[in-house]
Design goal:
The complex is a heterodimer of chains A (112) and B (112). Chain A has no helices and eleven strands. By secondary structure, chain A is an all-beta fold. The chains are: A mainly beta (112), B mainly beta (112).
Chain lengths: 112, 112
């Protein structure tokens, strides 16, 4: 079945630096790739998503890139701020099954 | 709109007891799903539904049942609770399988 691997599991950066989180997926039929942010004790919330017909999408300091050939996608956060500290999850789904499978999560710490 | 409402927020059960976690959404979303979240393991899909009357298994369905008799409600039943089912449970909904999922606040379940 579908599997999503996420790396690294923890990431610590200085405020103002960039952060990159990478995910790989196993099902070549996957066509929707969202990213979620979860603050401690809160619900996951969508921060950006990308579909398989697009290679890159940007929203202010956040960008996602997709390489369908290699079956991996990445989240890029520029000019990090302390409020970016949270757990980030990638996910992948396929239209034919409808399953949305999540990666294991990355704990991002932004040091002031 | 209330969004996705989960009840209860906290529950303690004894091994062997059964219970139902409630999930309701008022956004007329077709797609609903249940996840469990355990430390270091991300969000794992238990069951999902692409519309009223249709349900399917996710990654970790054993020990759980679901039904979808209405568009609004998607209850999750634990048949005979086991300590391994101690977790935080999230319900989510979206307009369809390739749209952002809206999560509820979660149910923290402890089984002794």
């Amino acid at each position: 079945g579908e599997n999503v691997e996420q790396h690294p599991s923890t990431l610590s950066v200085q405020e103002g630096d960039s952060a990159v989180i990478k995910c790989t997926y196993s099902d070549s039929a996957s066509n929707y790739f969202p990213w979620y942010k979860q603050e401690l004790g809160k619900r996951p919330q969508l921060i950006i998503d990308i579909r398989s017909n697009v290679g890159e999408k940007k929203d202010q300091r956040i960008a996602v890139t997709l390489n369908k050939t290699a079956k991996h996608f990445s989240l890029h956060i520029t000019e990090t701020q302390p409020e970016d500290s949270a757990v980030y999850f990638c996910a992948a789904s396929t239209r034919n099954t409808g399953k949305l499978i999540f990666g294991q999560g990355t704990t991002l710490q932004v040091k002031p | 709109n209330a969004g996705v409402t989960q009840t209860p927020k906290f529950q303690v059960l004894k091994t062997g007891q059964s219970m139902t976690l409630q999930c309701a959404q008022d956004m007329n979303h077709e797609y609903m799903s249940w996840y469990r979240q355990d430390p270091g393991m991300g969000l794992r899909l238990i069951h999902y539904s692409v519309g009223a009357g249709i349900t399917d298994q996710g990654e970790v369905p054993n020990g759980y049942n679901v039904s979808r008799s209405t568009t609004e409600d998607f209850p999750l039943r634990l048949l005979s609770a086991a300590p391994s089912q101690t977790s935080v449970y999230f319900c989510a909904s979206s307009r369809d399988r390739e749209q952002p999922q809206h999560f509820g606040d979660g149910t923290r379940l402890s089984i002794l």
